[in-house]
TrEMBL record:
InterPro entries referenced in this protein's UniProt entry, alphabetically: Dimeric_a/b-barrel, YCII
Family recorded in the similarity comment: Belongs to the YciI family.
Organism: Actinocrispum wychmicini
Domain (YCII-related): residue spans on this chain: 51-106
Protein name: YCII-related domain-containing protein
Gene3D superfamilies, A to Z: Dimeric alpha+beta barrel
Length: 110
């Protein structure tokens, strides 16, 4: 099953001072095992454009639409057997301690 993993900042990172996994080690390990299909960092929110259409009118605004301190800063697309495996992959990601990782299955049939 494919999962989109949103990598988000967090205003309350882990205070544990033990060494964190290097992101390049995490990427290489999961690429080699075929669990990470794609991923990258996003440009800062200052370069974002929000697009909406209301009553046929195109509305554009700079930056993210949501008023929040936490923002999506990157993504990874994972291929895992199930949610449990996706959680284990996310758990080892460096941003699990310094941010938040949101997992969502890809492919909605609703």
């Amino acid at each position: 099953m494919k999962y989109m993993m949103f990598v988000c900042s967090d205003s309350e990172p882990d205070t544990d001072t033990s060494p964190n996994t290097d992101i390049e080690v995490w990427v290489t390990e999961n690429d080699t095992k075929g669990r990470r299909l794609d991923g990258d960092a996003l440009h800062p929110t200052s370069e974002a454009t929000t697009v909406r259409v209301r009553h046929g009118e195109l509305l554009l605004s700079d930056g993210p639409f949501a008023e929040t301190k936490e923002v999506i800063i990157g993504y990874d697309i994972l291929e895992c057997v199930d949610l449990d495996e996706a959680i284990e992959v996310a758990r080892a990601h460096p941003m699990a301690r310094n941010g938040r990782l949101e997992l969502r299955p890809i492919g909605w049939n609703g």
